[in-house]
Amino acid sequence: MSAVLHPGKGKRPSSPILPSPAAANAAAASFAALTARLDYLAPGEVDEVRTAYRFADEAHLGQIRANGEPYITHPIAVAAQCAEWKLDVQALMAALLHDAIEDCGVTKPELIERFGAPVADLVDGLTKLDKLQFNTREENQAESFRKMLLAMARDVRVILIKLADRTHNMRTLEDVPREKWGRISSETLDIYAPIAHRLGLNQTYRELQELSFRYLRPWRYATLNKAVAKARSRRRDLIQKVQRDVENAFDSAEMKVRIAGREKTLFSIYKKMDEKHLSFAQVTDIYGFRIVVPTVTDCYTAMGLLHQLYKPVPGKFKDHIAIPKINGYQSLHTTLVGPSGVNVEFQLRTEAMHLVAESGVAAHWLYKASVPQEENAERLGTKWLQSLLDIQNETRDAAEFWDHVKIDLFPDAVYVFTPKSQIMSLPRSATVVDFAYAIHSDVGDHTVAARINGTQVPLRTELKNGDVVEVMTAPVSTPNPAWLGFVRTGRARSKIRHHLKTLAHVESQQLGEKLLAQALRAEGMDRLPPETEQYQPLWDKLLRFTGNKSRGELLTDLGLGRRIAGIVAKRLMVLLAELGERPDALLLSRERFTAHENVSQGGITIDGSENASVQFAGCCRPVPGDVIVGYLGRGEGLVVHAEDCAVARRLQHKDAERFIGVEWSDEPVRPFETGVLVTVANGKGALARVAAALAQAEADIIHVDMDDERAQDATDLRFVVSVRDRSHLDAVLRNLKRTPSVMGAVRIRHGG
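The structure assignment produced for this chain is given below.
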């Protein structure tokens, strides 16, 4: 588990190296210090922790850390950090045992037998985070990140122990060879610190950032450290004066408060200087105060007293109590102009808010029963963790999972309201569709329209702070693939992709079943053999012939054009003949007499409801009324061409067995797109008149393109319009030709 290498890691040494008396004393003292922190546990639970310590101590016997201390000091330090967060007895035992499986040859069954399944599962979860190795850094980062987040989503204690482990490794990084500092510190800064922040572990987040900065940029760290120390000594009198003034103001108002000084971390100073191109002297908010008060009302009262004492800086007030941050953080922030014109920041919060601010989801254990705010913090944190598990269930690719999650991991949140005034927090640039999926995946899947602040808006509209968002749904609506181009949250993206993949799979299977049934009719059988006990051996033989695992997979392959229905039907007839079934002579002669002369498979009816399984070729854009043929592309489903399309003719000459007969349904269920070329005389309002003529003929404009020939007398306008059928298209063309300034209108047939 530990990133710090040590002699003997991974196996027991044949002759144990005895630690020095000083090191042994250090280990004993460390456990004594840990025991002192376990006063919140019952006596029996302390005994369980001690048992885990003894087991770990024995398992790590002879292993030495890079600084010469016995290795057991590391698990003790991790457990001590977990005790700071008041984690339960199982988590503390897992913290002590977290390297036992990886380093000491201890097995999971052994841990289950000694300490129970929950502890063993936690240790196993921690061990698995470091198991797999990958070739590239990108893959490695994505995969280890994914495993870590999955472990989090199943049990948040795993990540808390892992963060404690990383924190101790960073505290002792000085003992590791210098060439490893960069890799370990970058990983900490890029992966562990943001997770700590997202979970609300503010203290850990700041410490990990600070330690990473110290080892990544040693010179900058040392320089800033000196500058801050000088500024601290220069401004000591000023800060003490502010503190006295504030204490006197609260004493006069008879308010009970706890005041603590707060200094900006070196990393946050460096980041501000770097991002805003400031010198150290220009960073004015290095010092601040945290004021902890008994109740929420006291927060606002205290802020009023501060604003009477010093002038507030305009635009520097933030109310994170009314609208908490995405990780559950709540406080009032205000910046005041103190003595000598120095800006001083104040944070005001209750004791419960302070606990959540410093410990985030760990506040669940810290303040278990009596604080309602902790429930809110846990709900916010756990909701995010659970959404990661949802994404994982629908995404098996590590890099894709990373794409989904990194969007959500570094949130710059925007806060909007539902019509019932519930606050929703989303990443900045989130759209109406992200909002719909944040409410529920069913709402997202069936979204058709939306209103923001009472005004109808497109679904791609980005949300702004304070927007009231109302989503309209329809049971027949399904996700649009175009949504993937503008959604921002990993949850929305994964749900849309999952739905589209499922839809395409189901439709391809249905199309495959139609194709096989019709190919079988051409062989003289009026139906597919059912999946009953009687026909199961037949299906098993057929699947062995095709190499498919299931009937559904075979039908999907047929629908996607990966297999030819005619060949499968012929094999099926051989197998049916073995069972004594013969083709129907009347059906056989009728099918052969009416079979399409240019195609080698049975025909199929198209009505426009096929969605993902049937595509209409962009080269000829067929509409109902055109004579059509179907081409089963390899892996792309059925592509419908006009019969006289040049592209279709070339394909037919080269790949005739992949063509099937298709015909239009008597009543297509939707309009179809086709191309129209309109030549107009250049002049004011020509495009508007053409658009009006199309609207009058009830043809929707999907796309328009025009030549850049302003100096010419005439211009070609290329439209993609939506029409019901061939006769509707003819009416549209007639209407265009009657329009003033239109010189000609024809259908575009690139394939003809």
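Interim note for the steering committee: Residues 490-522 form the longest helix (33 residues). The mean pLDDT is 77.
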